[in-house]
């Protein structure tokens, strides 16, 4: 699915998708409780009978195969301070295979128990590369998968992959000591016993037996079979399912700091580039024309949108924008004055959920999460937003500009600029080589889980307001699983904005 198609997904399309595929005709109904089979069947027929007969479209897909040799794939996230590593490939491991239990134990040794499993003991405890390294070996009725993953600092991305490969080779070539293997058996035994405390566990067991055609006593003998697994069996499972020489190494991170060092892991010595939606990206071979600098790119942009004189004629701005997602729709209203004051209201279903102001000196935010003063980077962010054209102040406001190269954005070459604000925050910006207009910027901010998250903002549909071009189409990716599509519905210049709008409420 492309970025463009993701941005065009509508609630109606999602509803039709569920109406087409979410039907019980291909489902299992499991009932656990104080009810007879006859009563359960009667109620199922009453409430689901007609619905259950509705047809569901069938599709056929090619079965994924392991690569013949190790490949390296890279997704560029400018400004990323960490790399996300995945070493992965499909495996043939049906849910009803006798290999499932010994293979699960093997993978537990390799990478599911924090601090104890081999990859975490190495990368986290031994070397301090990550807060957690994990592996998974997932059986599936059609095609299973293996995955080893961790988030690591840019500087140790290649070293982390080396250590992953050491552990993958180790479990293939070494027998797990019996005492250590027993410890991991005890972990799985505890997890199994703990799961029995959950009401839904019995239902899931019954479902698995029916769906995967397991022996009726599969779960009754589970612990016995687990305890009977030998170190030799574990090694056999590793040699069968751990295939580091037939893996996809997928890394998401900063290409400039990481990608070149990953060529050593690819059988063909190449790093395949993809965008954040999985579309192949061609490495642009274009060279920067003579005389072009970061400063000339910014100067050309300012002139392209109308020039400094037209920007200086703006005294205040009033704008409104609608941000659509597959879920809620957000409405944003923004007031600006003097190039150093701003008030932003974000609303959902007519209710303001966030109110943020900057009066030229201090910033303040209120909303559903309470009220607070803005400080540090957040204060600098809102101060920057207050400017009618922040780019016009890049060369006089203490910013550091670096021209990094050229990259294709939607098939058109764009200059890549790294912009470092006086407080040290960096943004990667892209300017179309033909129109000189800004088409994208990327920055990093803390995500909901506290980890750095890359936010991409795409700009388009530039229209003149008071002689100055403003983007009227803005797409934000990274905040949600799918992009937020923003459409500017109104921009008014010099219509008069009262200073009271920027007072703390």
**What would CATH call the class of the largest domain?**
Mainly Beta
Task: Please give the alpha-carbon distance between the first and last residues.
Answer: 44 Å
* Strand line-up in the sheet with most strands: 12-11-10-9-8-7-19-18-17-16-15-14-13
**How many distinct folded domains?**
3
Account of the protein in words:
This protein is of the alpha+beta class and 505 residues long. It has helices spanning 3-7, 11-21, 37-52, 100-111, 118-126, 157-173, 178-195, 200-212, 222-227, 231-241, 255-258, 294-304, 308-312, 376-385; strands spanning 71-76, 82-91, 130-138, 144-153, 248-253, 271-274, 316-324, 329-337, 341-348, 351-358, 363-367, 370-374, 400-409, 412-420, 426-432, 438-446, 452-465, 468-477, 484-493. The chain has a 13-stranded antiparallel beta sheet, with helices on one face. It has a six-stranded mixed beta sheet with strand order 3-4-2-5-1-6. The protein is globular, with a radius of gyration of 28 Å.
Quick structural summary:
The protein is an alpha+beta fold.
Keywords:
Cytochrome Bc1 Complex, Chain A, domain 1, outer membrane lipoprotein receptor (LolB), chain A, 13-stranded antiparallel β-sheet, 31% strand, disordered N terminus
Q: What layout of secondary structure does this protein have?
A:
Elements: H1 3-7, H2 11-21, H3 37-52, E1 71-76, E2 82-91, H4 100-111, H5 118-126, E3 130-138, E4 144-153, H6 157-173, H7 178-195, H8 200-212, H9 222-227, H10 231-241, E5 248-253, H11 255-258, E6 271-274, H12 294-304, H13 308-312, E7 316-324, E8 329-337, E9 341-348, E10 351-358, E11 363-367, E12 370-374, H14 376-385, E13 400-409, E14 412-420, E15 426-432, E16 438-446, E17 452-465, E18 468-477, E19 484-493
Parallel strand pairs: 1-5, 1-6
Antiparallel strand pairs: 2-4, 2-5, 3-4, 7-8, 7-19, 8-9, 9-10, 10-11, 11-12, 13-14, 14-15, 15-16, 16-17, 17-18, 18-19
Helix pairs in contact: 4-10, 5-6, 6-10
């Amino acid at each position: 699915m492309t970025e463009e198609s993701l941005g065009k997904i509508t609630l109606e399309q999602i509803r039709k998708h569920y109406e087409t595929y979410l039907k019980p005709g291909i489902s299992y109904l499991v009932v656990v409780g104080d009810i007879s089979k006859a009563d359960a069947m009667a109620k199922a027929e009453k409430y689901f009978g007609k619905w259950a007969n509705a047809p569901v479209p069938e599709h056929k897909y090619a079965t994924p195969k392991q690569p013949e040799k190790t490949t390296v794939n890279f997704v560029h996230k400018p400004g990323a301070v960490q790399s996300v590593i995945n070493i992965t490939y499909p495996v043939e491991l049906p849910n009803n295979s006798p290999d499932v239990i010994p293979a699960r134990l093997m993978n537990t040794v390799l990478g599911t128990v924090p601090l104890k499993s081999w990859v975490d003991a190495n990368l986290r405890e031994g070397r301090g590369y990550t807060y957690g390294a994990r592996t998974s070996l997932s059986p599936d009725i059609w095609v299973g998968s293996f995955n080893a993953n961790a988030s690591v600092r840019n500087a140790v991305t290649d070293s982390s992959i080396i250590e992953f490969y050491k552990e993958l080779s180790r479990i293939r070539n070494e027998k797990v000591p019996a005492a250590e293997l027993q410890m991991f058996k005890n972990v799985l035994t505890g997890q199994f016993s703990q799961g029995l405390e959950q009401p839904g566990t019995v239902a899931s067991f019954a479902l698995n037996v029916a769906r995967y055609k397991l022996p009726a006593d599969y779960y009754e003998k589970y612990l016995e079979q687990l305890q009977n697994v030998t170190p030799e069996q574990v090694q056999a499972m590793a040699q069968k399912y751990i295939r580091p020489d037939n893996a996809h190494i997928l890394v998401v991170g900063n290409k400039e700091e990481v990608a070149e060092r990953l060529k050593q892991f690819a059988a063909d010595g190449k790093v395949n580039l993809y965008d954040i939606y999985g579309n192949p990206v061609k490495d642009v071979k274009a060279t920067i024309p003579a005389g072009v600098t970061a400063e000339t790119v910014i100067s050309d942009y300012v002139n392209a949108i109308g020039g400094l004189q037209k920007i200086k004629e703006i005294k205040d701005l009033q704008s409104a924008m609608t941000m659509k997602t597959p879920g809620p729709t957000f409405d944003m209203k923004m007031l600006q004055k003097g190039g150093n004051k701003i008030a932003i209201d974000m609303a959902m279903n007519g209710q303001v959920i966030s109110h943020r102001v900057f009066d030229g000196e201090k910033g303040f935010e209120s909303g559903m999460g309470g009220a607070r003063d803005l400080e540090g980077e957040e204060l600098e962010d809102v101060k920057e937003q207050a400017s009618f054209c922040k780019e016009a102040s890049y060369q006089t406001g203490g910013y550091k500009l670096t021209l990094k190269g050229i990259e294709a954005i939607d098939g058109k070459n764009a200059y890549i600029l790294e912009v470092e604000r006086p407080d040290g925050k960096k943004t990667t910006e892209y300017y179309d080589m033909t129109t000189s207009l800004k088409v994208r910027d990327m920055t990093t901010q803390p995500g909901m889980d506290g980890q750095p998250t890359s936010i991409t903002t795409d700009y388009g549909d530039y229209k003149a307001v008071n002689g100055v071009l403003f983007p009227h189409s803005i797409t934000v990716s990274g905040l949600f699983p799918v992009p937020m599509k923003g459409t500017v519905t109104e921009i008014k210049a010099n219509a008069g904005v009262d200073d009271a709008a920027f007072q703390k409420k």
